[in-house]
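Blinded run. Sample ID left blank on purpose so nobody reads anything into the name before looking at the predicted structure. Input follows.
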Amino acid sequence: MMSTLYERLYRLVTDTSEEEIAKGREDPHAKAIPANFLRLLMVRTGSKVADRLASPKTTLAWLLQALGAPPVFTGIIVPLRESGSLLPQAFLSNFLKRFPVRKWAWSLGAAFQGVAIAGCALVALNLRGVSAGVAIVALLVAFSLARGMSSVTAKDVLGKTIPKRKRGQLTGWAASASGLVAIVAACLLFFLDEGTESILGYAAYLGVAAFLWWLAALVHIRVEEPAGETESGLWKGSQPS
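Blinded prediction complete.
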């Protein structure tokens, strides 16, 4: 029953015909594509929305200002998050490619990203001034390291589970959905008053972002990823895990 539902939804969001779906049912690996597509769509949409809700350019920057942290902290959080996720990728890439199934690494990274952002929400509720700035910067370092782990494995999992001509559609749907949510979320931020109300609002945004990362991690675990190198597993008969 669930497989039929996945197939119907898959046809709605892609240009796949009923004939292609029927033909795919004969291949145990192709049969998993509709479910994998929708799971990865949920994962990518959720993680993109979480990224926007916890953006260092808006939410975190405004939060630091509301907490009375010195301006130097606001200035370093954007480059810190971006560079911090790039630096460990060279080491992680070589290490993670040893594993035939890499969806677990993405989920682990997403779970830790959620922990780091939940920590920022707790900082908002309990710390002020320099202490708040130091704590948020430290948590962003941890966030960036976890983000690097997820970034290294994201393309591998996508390449092994979704046909090349469908990947653009998946990315497009996720970007559109997350962009719409981001616009609504950004508009709501402007209605927050200064003081305690704004701090609680920022903390709520971060709490929702953390939940979305944890939810994405759980959904990603359910992706049926064939064991093997990028793209080769799905098309050469490796068993999904």
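Unblinding after everyone has recorded impressions. The chain has a mean pLDDT of 84.
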